[in-house]
Write a structure and sequence with these properties.
The complex is a heterotrimer.
Chain A (H helix, E strand, L loop, with lengths): L18 E6 L2 E6 L4 H7 L6 E2 L6 E2 L12 E4 L2 E5 L10 E3 L17
Parallel strand pairs in A: 1-7
Antiparallel strand pairs in A: 1-2, 3-4, 5-6, 5-7
Chain B lengths: L1 E3 L4 E2 H11 L3 H8 L12 H8 L23 H5 L4
Antiparallel strand pairs in B: 1-2
Chain C lengths: L3 E4 L3 H12 L4 E4 L13 E3 L5 E3 H14 L3 E3 L4 E7 L2 E6 L3 E4 L2 E3 L3 E3 L12 E3 H10 L7 E5 L3 H12 L3 E8 L11 H9 L8 H9 L3 H9 L6 E3 L2 E13 L6 E6 L12 E4 L2 E4 L3 E3 L2 H6 L3 E4 L4 E4 L12 E3 L9 H20 L4 H16 L9 H19 L6
Parallel strand pairs in C: 1-2, 1-9, 2-5, 9-22, 11-18, 12-13, 12-18, 13-15
Antiparallel strand pairs in C: 3-4, 6-7, 7-8, 10-19, 14-15, 15-16, 16-17, 20-21
Helix pairs in contact in C: 1-2, 1-9, 3-4, 9-10
The chains are: A mainly beta, B mainly alpha, C alpha/beta.
């Protein structure tokens, strides 16, 4: 996991020994205990957290502090959970939402 | 180019609407759905405001895009819960 | 039932709660984030005296002090609504409904985006998001990034990314349109950067301030501003380039930039691609005042404070009985000002609970806010003082119009 910043010139060293496992879209993922779901997924190189329900465009973390709701996922069956505010837990089941099956006619006809 | 990420409302759509109807920010929002999605407009409100105020004067004494409760999504479970 | 409730566990909320508890009152703090500290958590910069302002340590010391005073802090608790019912403030959260006579809103600020084609791609995030990922979660937002928006916040965070050994390809402007008209205009950006010259040990600002004596020279400065940019902390700052597109299949692969003229217009045929796996959008901050709005506070738009702010006096009292504000909800400023505002709000609440025992301390605390502001290392808007004076005038006018019932 090269994307973690374990040593830092000013901040304390990170303890990267205590891992927990959870699943994201059925893949087993390991993250550090108590870190946010958004951080754990990014550390595993996962950037797409969901797709836009109407257009299907991929979305990831945007604000990272709970304001934008772009990182919302389904956690243990509960929809609309913000990955950036949710500490990971052992055995957690996480999945992305899907595109709506019935699309709206002329969606984004003016997309310029 | 998208302005409202939740409802995928574009810059072109907002600019045309603002120019065609000479809209206030609130009318612009109601006509296009910009700011009416999942996040409650927290992300795009300043941009919708800017587009509206390119063609109309800003009233500095009131919030142009009204805030509506709940300001975070609430599940029906907690809405229906009786607490004292 | 004299328990005070504070919404927001950032620097102002925590210091207000500490002050209220030190004066012998019970306090409950609610915050939707998983850690206490708010935006303070991500901050990391070297001060003039050579010491590091470490947001994580500052947050922890405020948090520990609050806990030692017996303050209850409920994290992961979003507030969805507040209202006044039968003389009490009612605070709605998912799990529970709380009641109080004295409610402090310390909800901070949210980021202003700059729209760029492709900005919904995974890997594009607000500059604050990259800061939190890097300094708080210690995960790299990517290996190589481009920061769009040249301002105090973005240059501070660029330096923080650099410290964590993350490559920042450049800091540059967004393509100008109705939304980005100021952040996309090199002249406006240059003007707003001049007041931060003291915090930048950089060729960039030195280069700038020499040329900035008058309007003509400013124009010359922009015209001759090197197209490749000048380097700050080894990161090119490019005022004569703008990002016109962010590209990538399912995530960011890079940005297309183009040369712009002194008024921000794109010069055709100058497009080039810069590869990057993350992009930061830095449009600045605005006061996050949604709870004050649903409660019914009057608002005023004050550009110098970052947008709409709820009307309040120097004691941080709103016009609504028992409702107080502190921190960035009252205008975008640094954490130290937020802390001093929190202390003031805390004293105002304690004073109202004790029947007037903290009057002297309140006046001192108000002076301390002004002193902190005057000595602030980082200032987001050069005219924040004028903004505060405007607000004070609105408060006085409002009092005369309504003849607030406290006079007799």
């Amino acid at each position: 996991m090269t994307s973690r910043i374990i040593n830092h010139p000013v901040l304390d060293k990170v303890d990267d020994t205590d891992f927990v496992s959870f699943t994201f879209n059925n893949d087993e993922i390991r993250g550090l205990r108590n870190e946010s779901l958004a951080a754990a997924l990014l550390a595993n190189n996962i950037r797409t957290l969901r797709v836009h329900e109407e257009s299907g465009t991929p979305r990831g973390i945007y604000c990272n502090i709970g304001h934008c709701f772009e990182c919302r996922v389904t956690v243990n069956g509960q929809q609309g959970v913000r990955a950036c505010l949710t500490p990971i837990q052992e055995g957690m089941t996480v999945s992305s939402g899907e595109k709506f099956l019935t699309s709206v006619k002329d969606w984004r006809s003016n997309n310029e | 180019m998208i302005i409202c990420r939740c409802e995928e409302v574009t810059y072109g759509e907002l600019k045309n609407t603002a120019e065609t109807y000479n809209c206030s920010a609130r009318e612009l929002k109601l006509r296009t759905r910009a700011g009416m999605g999942y996040c409650g407009g927290r992300t795009c409100r300043s941009m919708v405001d800017s587009i509206a105020h390119a063609s109309t004067e800003r009233d500095v004494t009131q919030v142009t895009l009204k805030y509506q409760p709940p300001i975070r999504p609430v599940s029906f479970g907690s809405l229906g819960e009786i607490t004292k | 039932m004299n328990r005070v409730i504070v919404i927001g566990a950032g620097p102002s909320g925590l210091s207000a709660a500490i002050t209220i508890a030190e004066n012998g009152n019970e306090v409950l703090i609610l915050d939707e984030y998983m850690l206490a500290g708010g935006r303070l958590l991500g901050q990391l910069y070297e001060e003039e005296n050579g010491k590091w302002w470490n947001g994580i340590k500052e947050s922890k010391s405020l948090h520990d002090k609050a806990v030692a005073l017996g303050i209850e802090i409920r994290l992961g608790t979003p507030v969805s609504n507040i209202e006044k019912l039968d003389g009490s403030w009612v605070i709605y959260t998912d799990e529970e409904t709380h009641y109080t006579q004295h409610l402090l809103l310390a909800t901070g600020a949210a980021e202003v985006p700059l729209p760029i084609p492709g900005w919904t791609l995974p890997g594009v995030m607000s500059v604050g998001a990259a800061q939190v990922m890097t300094n708080v979660h210690r995960v790299k937002p990517g290996n190589r990034g481009v920061i769009i928006g040249v301002n105090v916040l973005s240059s501070a965070i660029a330096m923080e990314l650099k410290l964590a050994d993350i490559d920042v390809a450049c800091i540059t402007l967004p393509k100008m349109n109705q939304v980005t008209k100021e952040s996309g205009n090199p002249m406006d950006v240059m003007n707003s950067l001049l007041h931060v010259s003291h915090m930048a040990p950089s060729a960039f600002v030195k280069f700038g301030s020499k040329l900035m004596k008058n309007e003509f020279m400013k124009k010359m400065g922009i015209t001759f501003f090197p197209k490749k940019g000048v380097k700050m902390w080894d990161i090119p700052i490019m005022l004569r380039k703008a990002v016109i597109n962010i590209y990538g299949e399912n995530a960011v692969e890079g940005v297309t930039i183009a040369t712009i003229n002194a008024s921000g217009e794109v010069i055709e045929g100058t497009e080039e691609n810069i590869s990057a796996d993350f992009v930061c959008i830095a449009g600045g901050l605005y006061p996050l005042a949604e709870l004050a709005a649903v409660a019914g506070c009057p608002f005023y738009y004050i550009e110098e404070l970052g947008g709409y702010v709820p009307l309040h006096n120097k004691r941080m009292e709103t016009v609504l009985d028992g409702l107080y504000v502190a921190g960035n909800i009252t205008g975008v400023e640094g954490a130290k000002v937020a802390i001093s505002q929190g202390v003031t709000a805390g004293l105002a609440i304690a004073n109202n609970l004790s029947g007037g025992k903290q009057e002297v301390e309140i006046n001192e605390a108000i002076k301390r806010i002004e002193h902190t502001r005057d000595n602030a290392f980082i200032q987001f808007h050069p005219a924040v003082k004028e903004g505060k004076e405007k607000l004070q005038r609105y408060w006085e006018e409002y009092g005369q119009e309504v003849k607030v019932g406290v006079t007799s």
